[in-house]
Amino acid sequence: MAARVKLAVLFAVLSLTVSGALPAAAGDLPDRTGPEIASLLSCERDVDPPRCVSVGNNSVHYVYIRRSVPEKIAKAVRRVMREHYERTNLRMIVQSTITSRTDVIVFAADYGQNGAAGWVWCPPDAPRGTTQYGDRWCRHQQLRFNLNARYA
Predict the structure, then answer these.
(1) Rounded Cα gap, residues 3 and 117, in angstroms
(2) Measuring CA to CA, which of 12, 73, 126, 147 is 20 to 30 A from 116?
(3) Does the pLDDT at position 41 exceed 80?
(4) Does the pTM of the predicted model rise above 0.90?
(5) What are the Cα distances from residue 108, in Å, to 3, 25, 69, 96, 152?
(6) Helix 71-84 vs helix 2-17: crossing angle, to nearest 10
(7) Which long-range contacts (CB under 8 A, 24 or more apart) does 31-38 make?
(8) pLDDT (tens digit, 9 = 90+) per residue, 82-110?
(9) DSSP label at 55?
(10) H or E stretch including 5?
(11) What is the rounded distance in angstroms from the CA atom of residue 67 to the CA atom of residue 116?
């Protein structure tokens, strides 16, 4: 299970942080990094659970992990942030409270057998915008882990 949680966390955090706002490193990267995602998994789709993908608006990414998230998942999120982004230009910061800068809020609950072990969603009232490359960014995105036994 630990490997699956780590993989799910890595995928989810990667989805949230792919951004054209990242600086190039020593000229090795093109001016634009990451895939164009402006039309990938739109937040307006009528799906349950609701899910979409947006980018971060800059290279500093603030994450708040709710107290209700089981410690194993919280540790996996922190480990992925620490170990998988240290070699990039992203700065991953765990917050103790939700602020206007918070990019991601991590949730975990039993959401039933809804077909998803985890997903990312940008609520309609979340602060949002568009990068200079046309990619959506969203603050207060929700990273949800389904604790239903079917997905354990």
Answers:
(1) 14
(2) 126
(3) no
(4) no
(5) 17, 35, 5, 17, 12
(6) 50
(7) 32/133, 34/135, 36/133, 36/134, 36/135, 37/135, 37/136, 38/130, 38/134, 38/135, 38/136
(8) 888 777 888 999 999 999 999 999 999 99
(9) B
(10) helix 2-17
(11) 22
